UniProtKB/TrEMBL annotation:
Residues 1-26 form the signal peptide. It comes from Salvia splendens (Scarlet sage). The active site is at E136, D276, E369, E390. Transmembrane segments: none annotated. GO terms for biological process: carbohydrate metabolic process; endoplasmic reticulum mannose trimming. This is alpha-1,2-Mannosidase. GO terms for cellular component: endoplasmic reticulum quality control compartment; membrane. Its cofactor is Ca(2+). Its EC number is 3.2.1.-.
Length: 575
């Protein structure tokens, strides 16, 4: 099976570059143009409702409390970043402003972007006695600053001449330097927490998560490329290599580990909380830096996920040592996975999982934090929806890849439910309990960095035309630059792609899925029957939906009969 460099190269061209070109030619005859315009305006209004209220009632603190029209220094759980030239007791890092900068550029609001850039340039400092979470501060603050710096130096964004002279990069570099002591461990795996002024605190906890130490490479790598200081990239890379060396013989990783001993603490893992962006950063680092090493890690890691966690369109958790299922839960963070699958070309698998996530969204009105698949009920305590972006993110990627208008419908429905259930006079509030739609007084910064951004880009992707970006896990765009690449990708179209759906609407799916589970499994006795399912081999019905169990055939991994889910998808449901 032909995978690896050439295949990845093709995907880079196909999925990031070419979709945007086709957009230009089709724009004139786009039958959905009016709908897209109407919806993009609606999302624009949502963004400004959230942003303006933040600026009025919470800035320069971290995040808005929309019900009481007040603020929270939520990064203070991660540590307070004090602001210079402000009274001592006035803590906050203007987190939501930092997180909003790239969205402002995407919305074409260069004036507000410039105002924010200049304000941060003059007021933000990291010389504070504050204990922060390395991962959160990296994806939100460092990522926000690096991305905004790149956008500020892009002449198309036309900042007033002479106003910007790398102030955000200077701030980012300072923050990056303050991260470095966290990596000073026997293993090179960083502590989860660091004091920005004093470094690692005495008796600091040594437990961290896989995503906490395995998803730093985009921001820290970009910082090294921009500053010429290799220490940031080296530290993140060393940690990632160490983490990868700790994988099990099944190529699975756990969820938590000890940074001093390099031993796993939690062996059960999945694609959700604590692990998610580890996978995301392997593939995105390959795209951004063109380095084979990332692909060589990603490929077996992805294969193992599909083999051990995937169950029809769902993903459960499993023990990294045995591959045995542990928890049968859907979590809202998992909904980013179809977006990642689009990046690797596994469109069919992406489509089927995305539909199930959307089905759960529709069932509750929004997606709950945790849903127990084996009991078909909500998790007793994790019934909340904190305005998370993951389903919108995957919807955006799938629309880019397929141009299937169904994803526009999904986007519209997400926009409508967010407006219906979470919009209040003072902004957008999180939902505490999806069964009662009781609200919680918190508008997370990722609502502006990600949720609104992906919804807007779904309906108006003009920002992406003729430009190639990778979005960090927090939605901050980083450009794909040949100067950052070890080697430029070659354009290559593999011949062994499976085609799916109906013949007249050919879609391509990656060959990777075939390799994971070949159509004819050796332990399968049903030679006469058509095998499908986990192999993503086309289902009998062209639209991929099933009406009855008879549409579903036999699972090629287990030889068990599949059944038709409530949402109309084949799988090894709870039978
Ligand atoms: C974001 O902060 C990032 O996407 C992170 O990787 C996990 N998800 C949250 C928002 O849900």
């Amino acid at each position: 099976m032909l995978l690896g460099k050439r295949w990845a190269s093709f995907l880079i061209f196909m999925l990031i570059f070419s979709t945007f070109y086709s957009q230009i030619s089709s724009s004139k005859s786009d039958p959905y143009a009016a709908k897209k315009k109407r919806m993009s305006q609606k999302v624009r209004q949502m963004f400004y409702h959230a942003y303006d209220n933040y600026m009025t009632y919470a800035f320069p603190h971290d995040e808005l409390k929309p019900l009481t029209k007040s603020f929270t220094n939520s990064l203070s759980e991660l540590g307070n970043l004090k602001l210079e030239r402000l009274p001592q007791e006035y803590n906050g890092s203007a987190l939501t402003l930092i997180e909003s900068l790239s969205s402002l550029v995407i919305l074409g609001n260069n004036t507000e972007f410039e105002k924010g850039v200049l304000w941060l340039s003059e007021n933000l400092t990291f010389d504070v006695d504050a204990r922060i979470n390395l991962f959160e501060c990296n994806i939100r603050v460092l990522g926000g600053l690096v991305s905004a710096h790149i956008l500020a130096t892009d002449s198309t964004n036309r900042l007033t001449k002479g106003t910007y002279s790398n102030q955000l990069l200077v701030l980012a570099e300072e923050l990056g330097r303050r991260f470095l002591p966290a990596f000073d461990t026997p293993t090179g795996l960083p502590y989860a927490w660091i004091n920005l002024k004093h470094g690692v605190m005495e008796n600091e906890i040594t437990e961290t998560s896989t995503s906490g130490c395995g998803s730093l490479i985009l921001e820290m790598g970009a910082l090294s490329h921009l500053t010429g200081d290799p220490r940031f990239e080296s530290a993140a890379l060393r940690a990632l290599r160490k983490l990868w060396s700790m994988r099990s013989s099944l190529n699975l990783v756990g969820t938590t580990l000890d940074v001093e001993t390099g031993e796993w603490i939690e062996f059960s893992s999945g694609i959700g909380a604590g692990v998610d962006s580890f996978y995301e950063y392997l593939v995105k680092a390959h795209i951004l830096f063109g380095r084979d090493e990332f692909w060589r890690m990603f490929q077996p890691a992805y294969t193992a996920v599909q083999k051990y966690f995937r169950h029809g369109p769902w993903y459960h958790e499993a023990d990294m040592r045995t591959g045995r299922a542990t928890y049968w839960q859907l979590t809202s963070l998992q909904a980013f996975w179809p977006g990642l699958q689009v990046l690797v070309g596994d469109i069919t698998a992406a489509n089927s999982s995305h539909r199930e996530f959307f089905y759960v969204w529709q069932k509750f009105g929004v997606i709950p934090e945790r849903y127990l698949l084996d009991h078909q009920m909500l998790h007793p305590t994790e019934k909340y929806y904190p305005l998370r972006p993951e389903l919108a993110e995957s919807t955006f990627y799938l629309y880019q890849a397929t141009k299937d208008p169904w994803y526009l419908q999904v986007g519209e429905s997400i926009v409508d439910s967010i407006n219906l259930h979470t919009r209040v006079e003072g902004g957008f509030a999180s939902i505490r309990d999806v069964t009662t739609m009781e609200l919680e007084d918190h508008q997370h910064s990722f609502f502006l960095a990600e949720t609104c951004k992906y919804l807007y880009l779904l309906f108006d992707d003009s920002f992406l035309v003729n430009r190639n970006y990778v979005f960090t896990t927090e939605g901050h765009p980083l450009p794909i630059l040949s100067s950052w690449h070890e080697r430029l990708p070659e354009a290559y179209i593999p011949s062994n792609w499976t085609s799916v759906k109906s013949e007249e609407r050919r879609k391509r799916a990656s060959a990777m899925s075939q390799r994971i589970c070949p159509a004819t499994s050796p332990n399968c006795r049903h030679d006469h029957e058509q095998l499908e399912s986990v192999c993503h081999i086309p289902d009998t019905r062209a639209d991929y939906r099933c009406l009855t169990d008879d549409d579903c055939g036999v699972d090629s991994m287990s030889c068990r009969r599949r059944s038709c889910s409530m949402a109309g998808y084949c799988g090894l449901w709870l039978s």
